[in-house]
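Q: Here's a chain of 277 amino acids. Please give me its 3D structure as tokens.
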Amino acid sequence: MRSVVRLLLLTTLVVLVSACASNREEEVLPEKTYYDNAREAMTSGNFNEAEENLDSLETYYPFGRYAEQAQLDLIYARYQNLDLEGARAAADRFLRLNPQSDHADYALYMRGLASYNLDIGLAARYFPIDVAARDPGEQSQAFRDFSELLNRYPDSQYIADARQRMIAIRNRMAQLEVFAARYYIKREAYVAANNRARYVVENYPTSPVVEEALIILAETYRFLDLKKGAEDAIALLRTNFPNSEAFNADGEYVANVLKGENRSLSSVVTFGLMGDE
């Protein structure tokens, strides 16, 4: 019996000691200490430590003196840690809690910046991934965020960079359409390729890939025996890209991107109509 009592006392003592140790580990620091630690960590490039201190600051002092700045710093720390989804979530939270803040434009800009890079990720930093071939969903979200920034904060210091990124996004979207057109050409789905090329010309007229889109448009129109469409596409090409390789030294249109493909119109038109659904 005495052995059992001793064992129970020893077990209780171990539990109490463990609890005391745990309490010491979870000791709450002053608000300013968390803030200063986070700022010092960011200055030294230790964004993991910065996040930990900022998370603690938000947990223990959600309405404290440094709350708003801590939320902004958390967006930046997560972005620097390549936690792009986390950065976007932190930006969303800041905008929800501080809609009238003088720094709302920064949060909106960072939200767009996170989306802008989100679909590229770490792999593209080290491997040759064709961005134009990727899902444009995050690019579209970034474009909306930057557009909102321009509309709501036209005098923001982040406007110039946002505009440049919007141009880059539009170019990426145009590249995606041309990438799809090339894919359809390989599959001999020329109607679908024509649709994609026409979309680029109509919606991204200043994109660097418009020249290629016009050539695809002209070629697919010619193949489908739509002479007026082909003539219009070639005329646009000649006006905007007079030095295009699609023209020979005499200025005659000689491009033939469909060369070597199966020219069986009966199968191609049917497949093309199905391929772009």
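Q: Can you summarize the key feature?
A: The chain has 13 helices and no strands.
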